[in-house]
C-alpha cells in the first residue's frame, strides 16, 4: 500500500525538476488540487511558483494557481509572526 500523499511528495521533486511526463504531472497537480495537507506541506515557495509560472502555465488550472498563491501569502504571514 502506498500513501498517496507520500507518493505525491516524492513525485514532487521530479515534478520540480521537470522530469515527469505530462501524465504524471497531471496526477500531481490533481492531487494538490484536492489535498490541502500536501499543498500546505510543500516548503519551497519559490520553486513551486517558478514551476507553476514557467512550466505548467498550460496544465495547471487557474483555480489551483490562485489557491497556491493564497497559500503562499498565508504562510508568509504566519512566518512573520
Ligand atoms: Zn496529499
TrEMBL record:
It comes from freshwater metagenome. InterPro entries: Anit_sigma_mycothiol_RsrA, Znf_put. Residues 5-38 form the Putative zinc-finger domain. NCBIfam families: antisig_RsrA. This is Unannotated protein.
Amino acid at each position: 500500500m502506498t500513501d498517496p500523499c507520500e507518493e505525491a511528495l516524492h513525485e514532487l521533486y521530479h515534478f520540480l525538476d521537470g522530469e515527469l511526463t505530462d501524465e504524471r504531472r497531471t496526477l500531481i497537480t490533481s492531487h494538490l488540487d484536492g489535498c490541502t495537507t500536501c499543498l500546505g506541506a510543500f516548503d519551497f515557495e519559490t520553486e513551486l511558483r517558478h514551476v507553476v509560472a514557467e512550466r505548467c502555465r498550460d496544465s495547471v488550472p487557474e483555480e489551483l494557481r490562485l489557491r497556491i498563491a493564497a497559500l503562499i501569502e498565508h504562510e508568509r504571514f504566519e512566518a512573520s509572526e
